[in-house]
Amino acid sequence: MDKVIYTEREMLLIDPKPGTAAAAARDFGIDLSLTVSNLRLTPEERIKQLDDHLDGIRALRGSLRIISRASERTV
């Protein structure tokens, strides 16, 4: 896996100054490097990624319906 090189501006978000909203988010447990990686995407790439996630959620929901129906028949 390649090492990610961050710009100076990206480092301000990844390693924020104390007292900032970004620092509070980091302290809460939010991975700010994921935010940076998403900000590197174009709007079109972000929409494609969102569509892919939605397709996965739909597939999971469909699977739950199948499993639920099968378990109702065995009860």
Can you give keywords for this protein?
2 domains; mainly alpha; 73% helix; 75 residues
Write the layout of secondary structure elements.
Elements (H helix, E strand, L loop, with lengths): L7 H7 L6 H8 L3 H8 L3 H32 L1
Instruction: Calculate Rg over CA atoms.
Output: 19 Å
Oligomeric state as shown = single chain
Shape: elongated
Structurally, the number of domains stands at 2
Total strands: 0
Tally of individual helices: 4
- What class do helices, strands and sheet pairing give? mainly alpha
Beta-strand level of the residues, as a percent range? under 5%
Element order, helices and strands? HHHH
Can you describe this structure in just a few lines?
Helices cover 73% and strands 0% of the residues. The chain has four helices and no strands.
Describe this structure in words.
This protein has 75 residues and is mainly α. It folds into 2 domains: 1-40, no CATH class; 42-75. It is built from 4 helices and no strands. The protein has helices at residues 8-14, 21-28, 32-39, 43-74. The longest helix is centred in the last third of the chain and has 32 residues, at 43-74. The chain is elongated and about 60 Å long. It starts with 7 loop residues before the first helix and ends with a helix. 0% of the residues are buried.
